[in-house]
C-alpha cells in the first residue's frame, strides 16, 4: 500500500495495487497544473484508490478539449490546491502526481512526454527517452 496526502493534510488517500512508472509530462497544461517544469504523472488501478480523509474537500477541473479526447481533468484539494488522484476517463485507472505521495511508490521515472512544449527555461538532462508529443501507450 502507498499513502498520499495534500499539503494542508485535509485530504489523504491510499493506493493498493501496482503503480506505473512515472512519466515526466512537459505539456503546457501539465506544467500549469503543477507549477513545475514537468508533471511527474503515474497511473494507479481505479479499484485500488481509496480516500481515507477529506474526500469532501476534493475539487475537479476539466479543461476544454484541444484536439482529441480524453478531456484534461485534474483533481485538487479545495483548501490548499495540492493535486490529487483523479479518474482517467474511459480507463480503469486514476492519474496522480507523484509529488503528493507520502510513501515510496516502488517505481521511478521512465520517460519524458510532450518535450516540444517544455518550458523555455528548462533543460532536460539524463538519458530517459524523450517524445516530442504524446508518448506511445505502454
Give a brief outline of the structure:
With 138 residues, the protein is mainly beta. 5% of the residues lie in helices and 36% in strands. The strands form 3 sheets. Strands 9-10-4-3-11 form a 5-stranded mixed β-sheet. It has a 3-stranded antiparallel β-sheet with strand order 1-2-5, with no helix packed on it. The protein has a 3-stranded antiparallel β-sheet with strand order 6-7-8, covered by helices on one side.
Q: What is the CATH topology descriptor?
A: Metal Binding Protein, Guanine Nucleotide Exchange Factor, Chain A
Strand/helix succession: EEEHEEEEEEEE
Most strands sheet: 5 strands, mixed
Count of helices?
Answer: 1
Low-pLDDT segments = none
Kindly provide the name of the CATH class: Mainly Beta
What is the molecular shape? globular
Strand content range: 35-45%
Strand order of the largest sheet: 9-10-4-3-11
Helix-and-strand structural type: mainly beta
Rg: 15 Å
Corresponding CATH architecture: Beta Complex
- How many β-strand stretches? 11
- Supply the number of structural domains: 1
**End-to-end CA span:** 23 Å
Amino acid at each position: 500500500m502507498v499513502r498520499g496526502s495534500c499539503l494542508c493534510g485535509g485530504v489523504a488517500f491510499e493506493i493498493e495495487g501496482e503503480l506505473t512508472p512515472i512519466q515526466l509530462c512537459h505539456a503546457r497544461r501539465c506544467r500549469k497544473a503543477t507549477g513545475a517544469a514537468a508533471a511527474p504523472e503515474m497511473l494507479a488501478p481505479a479499484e485500488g484508490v481509496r480516500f481515507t480523509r477529506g474526500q469532501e474537500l476534493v475539487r475537479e477541473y476539466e479543461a476544454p478539449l484541444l484536439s482529441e479526447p480524453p478531456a484534461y481533468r485534474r483533481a485538487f484539494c479545495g483548501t490548499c490546491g495540492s493535486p490529487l488522484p483523479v479518474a482517467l476517463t474511459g480507463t480503469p485507472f486514476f492519474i496522480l502526481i507523484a509529488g503528493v505521495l507520502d510513501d515510496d511508490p516502488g517505481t521511478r521515472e521512465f520517460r519524458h512526454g510532450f518535450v516540444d512544449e517544455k518550458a523555455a527555461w528548462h533543460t532536460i538532462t539524463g538519458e530517459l527517452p524523450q517524445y516530442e508529443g504524446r508518448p506511445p501507450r505502454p
